[in-house]
Amino acid sequence: MEVADVLHAQGDRFLARHPWLSVQQRTVLRALTRCRTAALGGHVDHCGACGHRAISYNSCRNRHCPKCQAHARDRWLAARERELLDVSYVHVVFTLPHALHPLCRRNAACLYHLLFCASAATLREVAADPTHLGAAIGFLSILHTWGQTLVRHPHVHCVVPAGGFSADHQRWVHPKYAGFFLPVKVLSRVFRGKFVEGLRRAYARGDLDLGGVTTTLRDASKWHAFVDALFRTDWIVYVKPAFGGPAAVLRYLGRYTHRVAISNHRLIAFDGERITFHWKDYTRDGQHRTMTLTAMEFLRRFVQHVLPRGFVRIRQFGFLANHCRTARLTLARRLLRHRSLRTRMRAATSAWSCPRCGAPMVLGPILNAHQLARVCFIFDTS
Asked: How far is the CA of 76 from the CAs of 69, 252, 260, in angstroms?
């Protein structure tokens, strides 16, 4: 069972019913429909051991495709493996309140970028305060826009080495207490203040598209009342327990970095009209449950998580930022008096195994759809 099966059965009907879909959303749906089919061409591969020949179709390589992220994830993890430090790592999650979800519908790029900036500035500011840690930290941020039931739930996962550089960069500052990194309530309030301030600036510049259900916010008095209401709720910032070690960090990143709204293994059944899938109910201690939706509703929930074209959903900040990462990691390892960590990573490979003898298949030349059709005809008649 795959998301593509739903698109093959109901994709045309869904597109006809939802003319408001963006070009990017339509492109993603078309890519998922054609992924690993003859429409994208393929290879005629052969086994070097037993000579078995088979056709492997090309993938769409779209980052929203549940089938096309394994190799990209492995390559990315191999690069991150070289950047691990021999310290504990902390997992911090920043979540936007439900009141902002309607704004995200028409202003995804603006609000998601603001979510990155506000959460990063919050972590760096609170960590730099001598009252809490007094260090310049670095971290990796990953954007997720979905919940377990595919509803809109924008949040950022931050993976943070527990500690950082002193102001003079002459020593490594460790957390003051074991099992404690930064105070959650302080993070929540600072995050709320920074995000709302950025939202006000975007409104003043006219950067927000206030249409649909947010049309009333074009009125200045309604906008100020909306912003004031954001301060009457506590924003959710969650600091999870520290990871078990660098290897655990890699396992976590492998699960979270290249995920899409829903993976194929969560799908249970599809009868052509309704689809059933697994989901985890975090309000009931992570209990596993099932949900059944119509194909139209399932696809509607799926497409709202298609990111704007070119939007970067994995970013690095502080001493892990691109412009200073290599030098800062070298300094950190010298201060921590250890060499670069090397953990066992599964090497990414483009080859697949022979279904007859299990040996690696040798990839053949790329064929377009017309050439592949001729090969299939030869296979069928031989």
From this structure: 10, 13, 16
- pLDDT, residue 370, reads 64
The CATH number that applies at residue 154 is: 3.40.1310
pTM: 0.87
User: How many structural domains compose the chain?
Assistant: 1
Q: Cα 88–90–91 angle (5° rounding)?
A: 150
- pLDDT band of residue 345 (cuts 50, 70, 90) is very low
Provide the pLDDT confidence category of residue 147 given band limits of 50, 70 and 90.
very high
Is 349 inside any structural domain? no
Residues 37, 287: Cα–Cα separation, whole Å = 36
Token pair, residue 121, equals 């500035």
CA distances from 245 to 248, 268, 299, 339, 380 (A): 5, 34, 38, 15, 53
